[in-house]
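[User]
Um, tokens okay?
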Amino acid sequence: MPVCITVLNSYSGWALVAEGFLLDSPTLTTIGSLIGFSGAILTKIMCDAMNRDIMNVIFGGISVPAKKPGAIDTAPKVHVEAGVDSAAAQLAAAKSVVIVPGYGMAV
């Protein structure tokens, strides 16, 4: 999913390039090309890291068959309520905890 976000980020840069051309603004064209290329480079790096082709990322969900209307997953589901006390207990029982600042924005 993050690859789709980087593709959309690149598309927004190319849209800004088109707007810069239409408004005859070299600043918009330059900034848009920087955004577009940086998004494209990041997309390429992420596709290589995930071992996926860019066409698979963009058009990957097109050939997936839809679920049949009668096909319902009847497996029992278990809901476990988590609260502050259980989270504190799990943190206290953990051997090591890694805190990654800013990771929530990337996901």
